[in-house]
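As described in the Methods, two query proteins were run sequentially through the folding procedure within a single session, without resetting any intermediate state between them. The first query and its resulting structure tokens are shown here.
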Amino acid sequence: MTETQEPEKDTKRFQEALKELESADYDRAQAYAKDLLSGLRIVRTFPQGVTIFGSARLKEASSYYKKARELGRLLAENGHAVITGGGPGIMEAANRGAFEYGGRSIGLNITLSHEQHPNPYLTDVLQFEYFFARKVMLAMSAKVYVFFPGGFGTMDEFSEILILMQEGKMPKMPMFLFGKSFWHPLDRFYATKLTSLKTINPPDRKIYKMTDSLEEIVAAANEIGHPKIKTNYYDGFKKAGKLATSKI
């Protein structure tokens, strides 16, 4: 092989590899789009409700499980759809409360290799392959957000919605951290570390509110009211943010 042929061969290999990579990226993008389009289509078929986040590992004996179940019932009594990730733990508890009352109980479930089967207390189930698409739908389907104690997944969901509200990428809807004793250390970290370093502004901590009151959460949902099916606060979200008179 001559010195001229070697670079030509390398160029051909590069082009083939690039073509294969582009094809894989294209297939991946199609899969992402399928997840998003499916979710967006279904989300429009029910009114925006209250999305409840929290650990999948907390069992029925947990006081937080009991409170999430009670919250699901209270929301259903007041005509609000309850939306969760569709799995066990806090998600199951909230769905269970709504389901037992006879309300709308929605689960946006994720396909995982080791866990996360839909809980048995769902009136509607959406199945997702990708976490990011599922998180988009958990956000878009809600008018109020409630975070019960949880692990990395709950913290990830909390942080993502928090930053979207902070940066004006979504309306500042009511956002509750349920369980003051659990969330207080995180709030203090924000106050003593992030605020003092000026990596966040003091008003940023007002985006969310810590509470031990289920009634306060229900009242916030009642104040917003019941948007009609096919409408969404994300449609022209700057106007929507003004309509949502949050107490936080």
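Immediately afterward, the second query was submitted; its sequence and tokens are:
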Amino acid sequence: MKKILLLSLLAFFGAATVCAGKTPRDEYVTRIETCEAILREFMANPATAIPAEVLQKAHALVIVNQFKAGFIFGVQDGYGVILVKRADGHWSIPVIVAAGELSLGLQIGANASESVMVITDEATPRIIFNRRFNLGVDAKATAGPKAAEAQKVNRELLDTPVLVYSKARGLYAGATVKTGWLERSDPPNFILYNTSFTMPELLYSDWVQPVPEVVPLMDYVKSIAP
């Protein structure tokens, strides 16, 4: 019975999207734009801004938007984008990923959670190529220091593979994070970039050029983490 209800919900939301005249590509462009807005909002607020010292260590950035998928079951669902800094120092195009259970202490009853992850090594992003990446399990993850907490930026913290920034309350710099997952999701990227190349090629090669809709996010990332 639950499965039937869930399928009905999905069919309803899918039909609503079609009726609104939105194509699947429109939806994926919206995801990119939403993640850009999330990153800009984080950086504009001293309470959530990522210090320059942390961004200088970034080998990858992941921006996640999570929400309740339905009122009946309270299922958490979400998506994100990942960009990596290649060996030549240039940032990749943003690649859409699936994300789940990244509430990180979100208040009960809230409907959304937004997070930014700074990955400080080259190996961690590649885990997502082959399997689901479990935050804090497959790589150590801690809450990152905010720009307003400059005294908490230290070498040990900067060497943590994943530094997590979230708008959820109750997180403090250095707090261990062991919740949430990221997973490769090639189909949205096939549609967004009109290509058959998969996540590894999109992130680590220049075979696919950025489409106009992703350029503002790329430019902003370059400006804060050159």
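The beta strands are 60-68, 76-84, 95-100, 112-119, 133-134, 141-143, 162-166, 181-184. We note this only descriptively and draw no conclusion about the first query from it.
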